[in-house]
Every structure is written in structure tokens, then in C-alpha cells.
Write a structure and sequence with these properties.
Layout lengths: L2 H13 L3 H7 L1 H7 L4 E7 L4 E7 L2 E6 L7 E5 L2 H8 L6 E4 L4 H19 L9 H25 L1 H8 L4 E7 L5 E7 L2 E6 L7 E5 L2 H8 L5 H7 L2 E5 L1 H11 L8
Helix pairs in contact: 1-4, 1-6, 2-3, 6-7, 6-8
Length: 253
């Protein structure tokens, strides 16, 4: 599988899913999307498909096709989709021409806000609320992306194939987020929330600990020794997953 195709999977399945939480965590975006009743389908020629649905003040992200999308956006290739996520290309609308104003203004405001949290600018003020949202999005993007890479990248797929069946759970104290990845014979499913019976659990003391680790300001081994990161269960599963997670930045930067 080529690099552009893998990146397209990560953009649609790891990055885009953050919109679910953006409309809940950001008060401005919550107000903007409060009355939306619209679904947007992303279609990539010879590539992945996904959708986002806004209704009753919430957002739902899904793989594949929406039953009745309000808008269909087509991309001629995975590279075309990736250029859009990089801000260098526009999609081709196949349905929902009357919604073009919504796409250019309201939906663009939403995606710009997502980029605001995922790609902090140098010197940008970062209060506690920003730090929390930024960390949640970075963590979720990383875990979802690692799940995709465990199935798509040939080298990382071999790493994942040697992992035991079961769920790896990541908890952030004292109030979340919680996310887990389920491994099952080469198929990886990532879900928000707690797993029913995880094989391994990685618990972070707080949101700042996660932020420091993801930004290279914290040594994972030292944090484990000090107890700010706690591991329980099948430690080999955690080690293998971290190996996959370390490769995410090679595709998303």
C-alpha cells in the first residue's frame, strides 16, 4: 500500500473523527453547530470513505457510506484528499450544491478550529482549556492512526500480528479521556471509552502528563518509574503498541 493511500486513511479515520469531540468541547463550535442537521460524505477514488453527521447539537463520524448524505465530496485520488487536509486543494461536490455556502463558511470554520487545536502555532497562548482539548485530540488522533497503521503499514502489521488478542486501554486521570484499541488477528478496532475486559491498561496521572509525553518533554521510562504513568496487564502489548504509535508522526506531521 502506497504512502498517499495510508495518509488518506489516517486523515479520514484518525483526524476527521475529532469533530465529534470538537462540537462538545469548544463552546464556540458547539454554538455554531447547535442547529445543524446535515451529513457530509467523503468519497475517494480507489481509497477510503467516511462521513460526518451533525444533528441535535452532536456530531457522528463513521467509516464507509452514510445512508442519505446531504453533501457528497469527491476526491480523484488519495493524494487529492491529502492535499485538501493540507489546505492545498478543494473537493469536487457531487451532491448538495445548495449547501456550498455552508461548506465554505460554517463547515470551514469548524475544520479551521480543529486545525487550531491539532497544530498549535509558535507563541500561541495556551490556557488550561486549550491544553486539555489539544491533548485529547493529539491522543485520539495518535491512537486511531496507530490502529490504521497496524493494518496498513507492512512492517507495523507484522508487529501487530504478534500481539495477543484483546484490548489495550488508555486512561487519563482524573476525568479522562478514555480510549482503547482491540486487536484481533490483524484487525484493529479503536473506540472511545473503556474496554469491557482489557488485556493491558496504560494510565496517565493527568492531562498534562500526556501532553508532556506527546511533545517529547517527558521520558516514558522515567515517568513509569515515578508512577505518573502506570502499566497493568500484558506489558508486551503496551510495548508493541507504543512502537506502532511512534510511527504516526512519519505519516502525520
Amino acid at each position: 500500500m502506497d504512502r498517499e493511500l495510508i495518509r488518506a486513511h489516517l486523515n479520514l479515520y484518525a483526524v476527521l473523527q475529532n469533530l465529534e469531540d470538537l462540537v462538545q468541547l469548544d463552546t464556540e463550535m458547539a454554538e455554531l453547530s447547535r442547529d445543524w442537521d446535515i451529513s457530509v460524505q467523503f468519497l475517494v477514488r480507489n481509497g477510503p470513505e467516511a462521513f460526518v453527521e451533525f444533528k441535535n447539537g452532536s456530531c457522528r463520524h463513521g467509516r464507509g457510506r452514510h445512508a442519505r448524505p446531504s453533501v457528497k465530496l469527491y476526491f480523484t485520488s488519495p493524494a487529492h484528499l491529502n492535499r485538501m487536509f493540507d489546505g492545498a486543494a478543494n473537493p469536487i461536490p457531487l451532491k448538495g450544491f445548495t449547501k456550498l455556502g455552508f461548506l465554505k463558511k460554517d463547515f470551514a470554520s469548524l475544520t479551521d478550529r480543529l486545525e487550531h487545536y491539532l497544530r498549535p502555532q509558535a507563541g500561541q497562548p495556551q490556557d488550561e482549556n486549550y491544553l486539555r482539548i489539544n491533548t485529547i485530540f493529539m491522543l485520539q488522533t495518535g491512537v486511531y492512526a496507530a490502529g490504521e497503521l497496524a493494518m496498513l503499514d507492512p512492517v507495523l502489521a507484522r508487529v501487530a500480528s504478534r500481539m495477543r488478542k484483546g484490548a489495550l486501554q488508555i486512561d487519563v486521570g482524573p476525568e479522562g479521556p478514555y480510549i482503547h484499541a482491540i486487536f484481533d488477528d490483524g484487525v484493529v478496532t479503536v473506540k472511545k471509552g473503556s474496554a469491557e475486559r482489557p488485556m493491558a491498561v496504560m494510565t496517565f496521572k493527568d492531562i498534562r502528563t500526556v501532553n508532556d509525553l506527546l511533545n517529547g518533554r517527558l521520558d516514558a521510562f522515567q515517568a513509569t518509574v515515578e508512577g505518573t504513568i502506570k502499566l497493568k496487564g500484558q506489558i508486551s502489548m503496551v510495548e508493541s503498541f507504543n512502537l506502532i504509535l511512534d510511527s504516526v508522526t512519519d505519516y502525520l506531521s
